[in-house]
Structures are given as structure tokens and as C-alpha cells.
Amino acid sequence: MSKSIHTIDSRENLELLTVAAFFGIQSDAMHSLISDWHDLLEAELQSEGIDYRELKAALVPAKKKREAALIFDTAAIPDAWYPLPVFEKLLQYLDRKSVNSVLMGDFIERSSPGCLQRCLEETGSRIDTDGTHDHFIVYLNNLSKSDPANLDRHFREFAGYRGIADLSYGSVFKTLLSTMLIPGFIKVRDTVIMEAEYDYAEWILDKKKESLGGPANPLGFPFAENGFRTTAISQDLYGIFLSYKIERECDGMDEADQLMGLNFLDRLFGPLRTAAVEVAPRKLAYIKQEKGDTLRRVGLEEITAGELEELIHDKITSNYLYNLEINEQYGVTKFNIMIELPGDKPYKLVLALKYHPEHHRISLITCF
């Protein structure tokens, strides 16, 4: 039997950490609970006609896809509820084929005037903002190469629109937004999934249908008017399993988030900063033969096994775990991390890693 989870959020969502404080983070109860709660999520999604596997592109960053933030000056939008006209316009653009996570929030300038402008300049974005006004930010992932420019044209005449920042790679601005924005919704083709106002216990008691009285739309945006079907998923399960984590350099600050991923993989685990890293010489020779172009792009074509082990160890504590998988048939537990390597143009490299909990060791499977 194989079970996989795209991502687990214990960075912004504290529910698992709260439960772990009661049961103990290294306990059979926590290991089973994460898996059981994910089963409940899959069942709730299936009841709405949604296959969890289809959400991967919205929850796992893709190295060849773009991420971007739309910037709006709230003082220049006539509507007091400024998110409404923004999303009325955005929903006219989004097609029925893509899969995206959409996050949103306010960049409050009053405490630090001009901060947003300095952040945008650091990313190389040619966007002018008023440092005395607050700004509304809409963040989208899994965009095509042409989407940022097309979105910019789509919003060009929109009152309050200031521009779009490409945040496909790491920056101070991207890190700041990772601490400010909240999940808005996931769009999987023509279906929009939102966080409900009830938890799973209420859903299972069938209070959901009684309280909604129609298609779920807790955000109140005009989804149906733009051809989208809507649904809402229990807030406790949504927060843990359906929240897209904007990548940031965490330098060990988000270790608890990693620990919850490892807790799903096995009852025995430890912090990744203390794990031994192994790159077998035969494995490296195979990767150089099969993935030579990838290694050349990042200047690693001559790297030794020991040097690659050091690189993985240095990077692993400041990255999030994705595509967590338990394969009981082969006794394999594994996960992916995405690292960003500097250069004339930054390059993202995905590492697939096998975790050996009994020895607290990580071994490289492949990279791409």
C-alpha cells in the first residue's frame, strides 16, 4: 500500500502542534492522527467530486511555473470592500483548465512608509507605489510563462492597480508576503475550493448542508457568475492540508513544520539538521549520466558525492517537504525538497530523498 500527501502546513496552522503538545510529537498517536485526518480530507473532497491528486499543482511549487503578486492601492479603489472588484476582474481572466492556489492580504504601510516600494525595487519590479497608502496583494502560483504579462494587460485600466511582481524566485518581498498573506482558495479547473466556516465534526454531523442552504461561497466573490462551481472544505482539514506555503528562507525557524511531515512518514524521526546525508557513488554516477544537463545548468557537473552531501545538508533545514510518501510494499518513506541555486539566473533543483528513520539518515534518490 502507498499513501502520499502533497504538503502539510504547521508553519501558519498550529492545529497539529497543539495536538502534539498533548500526545507528544514523537508518538504513535500523532503518526496515526496525521494519516487519519488526511483520509478524512480525501473522503470530504470525494464527496464533492474532487480527486485529491488533482490538487498537487496548486500545493507543490513547480520549478518551471511562475508565481506572481498583483499589487493594488486600496485608497484608489472606490469600493470600500476592495477585494470584491479585484476578484470580479481576476475571475474574468482565470481559465477553466488551470490549477492554482490564490492567497491574499493587506500590506500595511502605516508602520513603515515606503517599505513596499523598497521590496519591489529589490525584486527588480518597475512598480511605483504610494508609501503612505496600504496595498492589497493577490498572490497566484502555478502560472504559465505568459500569465504575468497577460494579467498585467488585463488589469492595466483597473482603478488602483499598480502592477504585478514576478516572485518565481526568492526575495525579501516574497519572504515578507509569506508571513502576511492568507489562503484564499484553490482553483482546480472549473471548481473553486474554499475554507469552510465549520470544522470536520460539524460536517460529519451534516450541519454543513443545513447551514449553507445553497452552493458554498464563504468568500462572497462572484464565482458562479464567472462559470465556476464552488465548494467549501472543513476549516481544520483545509488549514493543514490545502494551504499553499509561499517559499521562504527559514534557516531552521520552521523546523516544527518539517517535523510534522516526518511524523507522517514514521513514528521515529528527528530534526533534519541532525540527520546524516548519503549520496552513494553509484547513484551520483547514474545522476551525472541521466541528469547531466540539469547538473550543468547549475554548475554541479563536477561535484563529488561528499560535496553533494554537504550541499543537501546545508539546504535541507531551510526548505519545506513536499510529496511525502509511504510505500509499505517496498518499505520506502520519501519526500522532495526544492532548492534554489544562485547564478546569473537563479535555478531551482528538486531533490527526491529517501528517509531512513531507524538510522535517522537521508539518501538521495534523484534530482531534476
Number of helices: 14
Could you tell me the mean pLDDT? 92
Name the beta content range. 15-25%
Structural class, by secondary structure, is alpha+beta
Note the overall shape: globular
Helix coverage percent of residues? 25-40%
Low-pLDDT stretches: none
Question: Topology as H/E string?
Answer: EHHHEHEHEHEHEEHHEHHEHHHEEEE
Strand arrangement across the biggest beta sheet = 5-2-4-3-6-7-8
- Cα distance, first to last residue? 26 Å
CA radius of gyration is 21 Å
| Whole-number count of domains | 2
**What is the strand tally?**
13
Q: Largest beta sheet, briefly?
A: 7 strands, mixed
If you had to describe this structure to a student in words, what would you say it looks like?
This protein has helices at residues 15-23, 28-47, 56-59, 83-93, 115-123, 147-155, 172-180, 200-204, 207-212, 235-241, 255-265, 281-290, 292-297, 305-316; strands spanning 2-5, 66-73, 99-107, 135-143, 161-166, 182-188, 191-195, 229-233, 276-278, 322-327, 332-341, 347-356, 361-367. The protein has 368 residues and is an alpha+beta fold. The chain folds into two domains: 1-47 and 249-368, no CATH class; 58-247, no CATH class. The chain has a seven-stranded mixed β-sheet, sandwiched between helices. The protein has a six-stranded mixed β-sheet with strand order 1-10-11-12-13-9, covered by helices on one side. α2 (28-47) crosses α11. It is globular and about 60 Å long. The mean pLDDT is 92.
Q: Which helices and strands appear, and what pairs or packs with what?
A:
Blueprint: E1 2-5, H1 15-23, H2 28-47, H3 56-59, E2 66-73, H4 83-93, E3 99-107, H5 115-123, E4 135-143, H6 147-155, E5 161-166, H7 172-180, E6 182-188, E7 191-195, H8 200-204, H9 207-212, E8 229-233, H10 235-241, H11 255-265, E9 276-278, H12 281-290, H13 292-297, H14 305-316, E10 322-327, E11 332-341, E12 347-356, E13 361-367
Parallel strand pairs: 7-8, 9-13
Antiparallel strand pairs: 1-10, 2-4, 2-5, 3-4, 3-6, 6-7, 10-11, 11-12, 12-13
Helix pairs in contact: 2-11
